[in-house]
Each structure stands twice: as structure tokens, then as C-alpha cells.
């Protein structure tokens, strides 16, 4: 009889698994299900990046084990990207870790920094993977409510002193999944001051760092003076270049945290395929017009979604970034009951907000990951239910 470890048993339930199960079941009997529930980019990787991977795949050097913490040329490309996009100086040798998707880094960082009983602070609602690493490390989780009234920014003055004394790690994520909110310099300045005062390491999840609307480019945490003293930023190619299936991302910033991540990584996998590293370096440094087109596509979809929803009486402020919109559920429904109603009565999949934490209750998350026609159709079907 095989028994699972306590660490494994502590892992939170994968909430998307249930959503996928229900949607897949419905698809077996209905071919018109519209999926606005998951966060999987719907467009292909730009052709020039795919071509580079094909070419790089035939290089015999890459058929051997890659260097443990990744090729220098890739870390140099990340430094070039940060300088070009944010005018942030990064030392490629000590301030970049290569990850197989940032998901791995987000889980590993908790194992790197937390001991059993330590406290880590997470946004609520927030991306559930932060919880997983904290659970594996047997640490305690303190949730920072993100509410609309405060622009979905945490209110540090509300955190008890005792928590701040025990906290060792804190996660932030802007542009935010699930709310679509963006950060400002003031938030990051306050974060750095708090982190310094209480010796808290900061992880800023910048997965949607390239996706800002209304001509506002999202700001990097590392742009704020002092950021590298306290934290790192997780940056992925998954969303910026539609490369979610390629599994590549980076941790950038504080050299002690980067060293810790590299240390743990050496034990999990000794870096990723070299051909992929070459294609990723190319993606970061080649012509960026595909990124502009991608953002324009999401912005146009966002406008359609928000306008169509307003027509049926479902009103919400337009998200400033990411590819999600965070809609309130009508009175009398829980998030889950409302999501089920949309699934079974309108054949539209949305993500119930309670899957992102306690403060997600009362909301559903809709993704901008299908065509404008499908978004319109989805909202029209929801409108016919006359719930607003
Ligand atoms: N962080 C956030 C907020 C996300 O939404 C996602 C993916 O959905 C990730 C991280 C993981 O991205 P990656 O593909 O780099 O593992």
C-alpha cells in the first residue's frame, strides 16, 4: 500500500480540474460550448519564433545536457529585454534564472525561502499556484484582500503587526489575474518600504507584463528604486508570445533569491532544451510587432465584451491589463451557482471567482481568449437568461 506524503496531502485542490471536467462533459453532447473559463492563449506562436526553434533543433550542441542554470546568451537576452522595455539594468550572470514556465518558479520560491510555520502573504483573489508552494513548505498563508474600492491593491495598513513580523515572503501580481487591475509606482514604493522594514522577500508575478490597454504599458516591479534589494519578478513568454505550451519563463532580480532558485532547480531538472532557449532569446530580442498586434487584439476583444455585457445590464469597469475581465455575479447567486447556470443554460464556460480565494466569491472571471464573434454570441446567450 502506497501512502502519500503529508506535503502532497497538503496541496490545494486543482480548482480548474473541476471546471475542465464539467466543460468537457458538456462538449460531448453540445458542439456550441464557448469557453471563457481558462487562461490558455488561443492564437499561435508568431511564425518567426517557430522557425527559429525548427532551425535550432538541428544543432547537435543542444542534443546534449544544457548548462545547469541555462545558456548565457538567453540570460543576456532577458537583460536586453529589461533594458529595452523598462530601462532596468540586470546582471545576466547573477540576476536571471531560467525556468520551465514561471509556474515552477512560483512554487519553488516558497520551498527556497520558507520553513515550516513561517508566514507568506498572498493576494486574495489570486492565482492559486502561490498556495501550492506555501503548502508544500508547510508554511502559513495570510491573505491580503483585493477589493475594487482600492483598485484591487492590497492595503498594507490593515495587516496586523504580528503577521508582518512573522511574514517572510509575499506574492503580488500585476496586471492581475483574475481582476485585470494594474499596479502603479505608489503601490510598488509602499511594497518595497514594507518589505525592507519587516524583512519580507517579494515575488512579483508579471505574467501579463506585456498586456496593458489604453496606451498604458504595465510597469515592472524592478523599475521602482530598491526593488532588487527585496525581490524578484517572474516573467514568462507564455502570454507575451503565445508560447504557453513551450514552457519557458524567468525569475529576474534579487541575486540571493535567484541563487536559491537555481540551487533548487539543479535538483529538479538541469535546465531546459537548448533549442528552446535559443528560440526564446530570439523572441525577446527580435522585432516586437507581434506583441503590439496581440495587445491590440485583446484590447478590441475587451471593448466588445464590456460593451456587449453593458447592453444586457451586466456592467463592469474595463480591465486595464491582462486578458481577463472580473464580473460581479447577480444578487442571489454564489459564484459557483452562477457559473453553473451559464454553463448549463447558455453553454458558456466562465471561472467562478471563489476558486481564486474568499474575496473572489461574488465574481466570475471571463477570458478574452476567443474571437469577437464568439464573445458577442456568449454575452447574447447570457442575456437571454434575463438574470440582470
Ligand atoms: N502567473 C499567473 C498570474 C498566471 O495566470 C499564469 C498562467 O496562467 C502563470 C503565472 C503561469 O505561467 P507559465 O506559463 O509561465 O507557467
TrEMBL record:
Residues 32-382 form the Aminotransferase class I/classII large domain. Keywords: Aminotransferase, Transferase. The keyword Transferase applies. Its cofactor is pyridoxal 5'-phosphate. GO terms for molecular function: pyridoxal phosphate binding; transaminase activity. It holds the Pfam family Aminotran_1_2. It comes from the Bacteria. PANTHER family: AMINO ACID AMINOTRANSFERASE (PTHR42832), L-GLUTAMINE--4-(METHYLSULFANYL)-2-OXOBUTANOATE AMINOTRANSFERASE (PTHR42832:SF3). This is Pyridoxal phosphate-dependent aminotransferase.
Amino acid at each position: 500500500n502506497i501512502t502519500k506524503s503529508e506535503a502532497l496531502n497538503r496541496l490545494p485542490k486543482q480548482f480548474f480540474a473541476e471546471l475542465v471536467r464539467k466543460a468537457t462533459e458538456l462538449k460531448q453532447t453540445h458542439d456550441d460550448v464557448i469557453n471563457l473559463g481558462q487562461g490558455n492563449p488561443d492564437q499561435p506562436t508568431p511564425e518567426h519564433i517557430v522557425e527559429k526553434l525548427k532551425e535550432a533543433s538541428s544543432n547537435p550542441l543542444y542534443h546534449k545536457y544544457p548548462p545547469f542554470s541555462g545558456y548565457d546568451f538567453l540570460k543576456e537576452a532577458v537583460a536586453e529585454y529589461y533594458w529595452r522595455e523598462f530601462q532596468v539594468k540586470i546582471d545576466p550572470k547573477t540576476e536571471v534564472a531560467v525556468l520551465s514556465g514561471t509556474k515552477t518558479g512560483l512554487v519553488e520560491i516558497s520551498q527556497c525561502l520558507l520553513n515550516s510555520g513561517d508566514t507568506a502573504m498572498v493576494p486574495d483573489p489570486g492565482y492559486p499556484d502561490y498556495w501550492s508552494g506555501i503548502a508544500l513548505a508547510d508554511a502559513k498563508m495570510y491573505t491580503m484582500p483585493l477589493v475594487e474600492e482600492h483598485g484591487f491593491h492590497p492595503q498594507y495598513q490593515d495587516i496586523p503587526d504580528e503577521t508582518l513580523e512573522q511574514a517572510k515572503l509575499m506574492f503580488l501580481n500585476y496586471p492581475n489575474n483574475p481582476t485585470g487591475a494594474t499596479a502603479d509606482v505608489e503601490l510598488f514604493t509602499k511594497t518595497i518600504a514594507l518589505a525592507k522594514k519587516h524583512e519580507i522577500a517579494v515575488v512579483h508575478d508579471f505574467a501579463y507584463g506585456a498586456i496593458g490597454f489604453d496606451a498604458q504599458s504595465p510597469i515592472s516591479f524592478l523599475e521602482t528604486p530598491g526593488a532588487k534589494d527585496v525581490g524578484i519578478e517572474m516573467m514568462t513568454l507564455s502570454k507575451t508570445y503565445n508560447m504557453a505550451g513551450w514552457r519557458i519563463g524567468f525569475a529576474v532580480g534579487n541575486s540571493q533569491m535567484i541563487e536559491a532558485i537555481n540551487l533548487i532547480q539543479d535538483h529538479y531538472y538541469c535546465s531546459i532544451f537548448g533549442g528552446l532557449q535559443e528560440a526564446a532569446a530570439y523572441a525577446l530580442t527580435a522585432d516586437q510587432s507581434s506583441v503590439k498586434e496581440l495587445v491590440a487584439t485583446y484590447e478590441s476583444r475587451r471593448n466588445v465584451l464590456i460593451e456587449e455585457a453593458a447592453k444586457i445590464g451586466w456592467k463592469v469597469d474595463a480591465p486595464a491589463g491582462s486578458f481577463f475581465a472580473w464580473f460581479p455575479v447577480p444578487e442571489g447567486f454564489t459564484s459557483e451557482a452562477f457559473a453553473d447556470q451559464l454553463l448549463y443554460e447558455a453553454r458558456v464556460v466562465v471561472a467562478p471567482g471563489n476558486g481564486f480565494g474568499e474575496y473572489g466569491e461574488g465574481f466570475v472571471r471571463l477570458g478574452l481568449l476567443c474571437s469577437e464573434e464568439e464573445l458577442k454570441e456568449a454575452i447574447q446567450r447570457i442575456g437571454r437568461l434575463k438574470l440582470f
